[in-house]
Amino acid sequence: xxxxxxxxxxxxxxxxxxxxxxxxxxxxxxxxxxxxxxxxxxxxxxxxxxxxxxxxxxxxxxxxxxxxxxxxxxxxxxxxxxxxxxxxxxxxxxxxxxxxxxxxxxxxxxxxxxxxxxxxxxxxxxxxxxxxxxxxxxxxxxxxxxxxxxxxxxxxxxxxxxxxxxxxxxxxxxxxxxxxxxxxxxxxxxxxxxxxxxxxxxxxxxxxxxxxxxxxxxxxxxxxxxxxxxxxxxxxxxxxxxxxxxxxxxxxxxxxxxxxxxxxxxxxxxxxxxxxxxxxxxxxxxxxxxxxxxxxxxxxxxxxxxxxxxxxxxxxxxxxxxxxxxxxxxxxxxxxxxxxxxxxxxxxxxxxxxxxxxxxxxxxxxxxxxxxxxxxxxxxxxxxxxxxxxxxxxxxxxxxxxxxxxxxxxxxxxxxxxxxxxxxxxxxxxxxxxxxxxxxxxxxxxxxxxxxxxxxxxxxxxxxxxxxxxxxxxxxxxxxxxxxxxxxxxxxxxxxxxxxxxxxxxxxxxxxxxxxxxxxxxxxxxxxxxxxxx
Amino acid sequence: xxxxxxxxxxxxxxxxxxxxxxxxxxxxxxxxxxxxxxxxxxxxxxxxxxxxxxxxxxxxxxxxxxxxxxxxxxxxxxxxxxxxxxxxxxxxxxxxxxxxxxxxxxxxxxxxxxxxxxxxxxxxxxxxxxxxxxxxxxxxxxxxxxxxxxxxxxxxxxxxxxxxxxxxxxxxxxxxxxxxxxxxxxxxxxxxxxxxxxxxxxxxxxxxxxxxxxxxxxxxxxxxxxxxxxxxxxxxxxxxxxxxxxxxxxxxxxxxxxxxxxxxxxxxxxxxxxxxxxxxxxxxxxxxxxxxxxxxxxxxxxxxxxxxxxxxxxxxxxxxxxxxxxxxxxxxxxxxxxxxxxxxxxxxxxxxxxxxxxxxxxxxxxxxxxxxxxxxxxxxxxxxxxxxxxxxxxxxxxxxxxxxxxxxxxxxxxxxxxxxxxxxxxxxxxxxxxxxxxxxxxxxxxxxxxxxxxxxxxxxxxxxxxxxxxxxxxxxxxxxxxxxxxxxxxxxxxxxxxxxxxxxxxxxxxxxxxxxxxxxxxxxxxxxxxxxxx
Lengths: 534, 534
Hints:
The structure is a homodimer. Chain A is of the alpha/beta class. Chain A has 2 domains: 8-127, Roll (Nuclear Transport Factor 2, Chain: A); 146-528, Amidase signature (AS) enzymes (Alpha-Beta Complex), CATH 3.90.1300.10. Chain A has 16 helices and 20 strands. The first copy, chain A, has helices spanning 18-31, 34-40, 59-67, 185-189, 199-206, 249-256, 273-279, 313-323, 341-346, 349-365, 378-406, 413-423, 427-448, 469-483, 485-489, 516-528, and strands at residues 8-9, 48-50, 55-57, 76-86, 89-98, 101-112, 115-127, 146-154, 166-170, 210-215, 227-228, 232-233, 262-267, 282-285, 305-310, 336-339, 371-373, 451-456, 493-498, 505-510. Chain A has an 11-stranded mixed β-sheet with strand order 8-10-9-13-15-14-19-20-18-16-17, sandwiched between helices. In chain A, helix 8 (313-323) packs antiparallel against helix 16 and helix 11 packs across helix 13. Chain A is globular. Chains A and B meet through strand 4, strand 5, strand 6, strand 7 and strand 8 of A and strand 4, strand 5, strand 6, strand 7 and strand 8 of B. Strand 8 of chain A pairs antiparallel with strand 8 (146-154) of chain B.
């Protein structure tokens, strides 16, 4: 079992069996044989495994992490340093090499009745080092987050409230000197450098912001998963084993990673609010039409908005102040709060409890007035959602259909299938759906008059990165049923971080159209409130 | 001594004294108290310390590494997991936090007659993770390597021998759509986006190459250190504790890191050959004027050249084929080899021995014809070097003096001092120096006629990153005495990696002006030869 040619250094004799166990473990690691890996880790609550990102304690937590891991190492062990601490305790440090990259694994092996087991492990992911000849080129930026980035990419055009703020611009929004790619390399290849930035970009730069770069999007923004078949799946720093959500995947990750303070994105059906919820960020979708969408690649213009992700409400409000016209004086906050029990029932139990507990705490503290319930049946919501989806699909195909037909094979399977379905929507179907949406809009706006609607942003934490298409599609359906409400109403919405379980979700506030600034004020009050009742 | 509030988890009682020792070690780490750190590591050859990059064995190697470390951690310990393996052996895993970043330190403590000592340590450098509110923004690219980068930044303009090759362009060379910064932020701030790329950039893109990004340079390229007072010191992946060399610091690091295959730079006095030698790369400086320098920010036009860094000779030759006119048929290689004992004596003993051994091996294998010695006295070389330096300074001030005078405080101390000295050079001094350089050129060209000159690229490995200004200045003087010869002659030169000690140096071949392609062929033969005589 020991790999031939790997030098083993040990000041004295190595106890029987521990190297065999090490190599059995290593083979299982390369084969992603999780059963063997789990068996070779010491059972019980004291086993520990860490890397530069997380320190997991207990066999169960470690096994759970392993099941969510997407990347299987391909490195080889290059050298072993073995230190015997006691007859039943051996420390092994294994230097690993993967072409260019080098890494280090330290394992504490202890002898048990069942043989040698790992009681503690520390893994250093491969660090940058001189690559071997012929090694695969490494990108200077994370391709799942950025298409182009700089320090900065473009400087401010003035000084103002956004001084020092770096903006990651979703690759749907024009940046002067660069083509717009829409997350689709074949589309990008046909584009020229834009002569001018979108007005929203220029407005941010005039207010003092600089551009950090052009960040990735799900293909043509027609997804909320946060994975792009060409550029990869963006990281979710708040929950590394899970998807990050999309379609504003790059701006969200850039903000979550601290590489930008503002992610300028678009939200048609949830593309800002969903990644915000999944990553513990603040995501703001303005009133439809309040922020000009000139210079922005459309998806479904009836619902498309330009919005932003930030790490806190204050920064979100600063962006709003730069982009949205103030309406003379501080507008009054909404007098009433509405809840939608149906939307809450769509959420998973832990998320529902977390949400209800937080709202109750806000009410108890007086941060929110006591809420009332809006009556909406499941059948009506299904009808609204179907109509919303039909209109979105019809418009998406009208926007991109001719390009897609002329460039077969340019999209990943999931997005291609969605566009193929969109191609089948007839004008009659779309017209009927528009009538349903108009009625829904009227009902929603009636509820929102003088009120804010409070609901979970998403039904639960992001799917694991290992989730299959069926699971992702199921989550997508349940998520959009909730997230379609503000697009249907053309109403502003903000998602606030809702934490307390193992991965973030979001608490969403929806206000009446035009109440963007009061909605942000209400959000600021909630964000400043203590998380729990005393 | 234990930090209050840091949770300590241990399944049983913690042996006396080990936590005190841990906290003493941690305080010393934060204070960079190397004496305490060295004392708390177990003496002897079996102590081991690793991270994702290197695994050091033996107390001496670890202490040496520590003395070369530039960055002192500022993180705090957030959590301790303690496992007792024997009465005298304790494993401590410390999760650390530094604002945004998290890390992990694993230490095996053993009890000795002198108390608790670290017998093995594994450090995970902070990995990306969700930043804390208010955390310092992280750049999406390494600012010491890149100013702007993309996947790609600009695509190819054709298909050819450079298909798939990514180029890092030094920030002296025009890239369309971007300003040229010259490594000086205040200068960059006054520049507009270039309407067109330098012809050399366009030629590479027509041959199939894409641009990976715009890479950093020492300020106005007037340094060979590889550190920029504004953007930082570029990494040297081949020798992490050492400087990487400059002024083509960004292109060199980009190639060494595997983030580009070609670093397009400039070499006035050594700015390609020196970083190539320090990082184990191939660095090519063409015949003066052979590659057009239109669109390139000058330093000293009499010596300025556009050249390139690669990881192998084959890629360097492919770039040459795209940029240099072929001269009908394969030109014959040089018949004779010259050595310059004086230049070899300028090298440190280890470098000199390594160089002489390699040349002897080449001669023994017939890869190089037997060499003869060129007679050059130290006094003559000093005279040549002084004249070269005077002309370079005079031209550098003519190029940048008026801008520098109008923008005081825009340069780092070392470069500012160099320009200040340059400002004092009179026209008469420059004219006299030009006459000396012309005579030196004539002598060098006579030697190079039908021959190649073989010499060490640099007198020794790169200075440590902790080296002070005096040491760096001393190394600079000895280096330029060697590296000024090809600029004086206007002759092509190539530096090949010369490895065998703890950090790379280089073996330099200089050919007669115009023999760029035969020189590359000769370099390819050397690179293909076995490193040692059988």
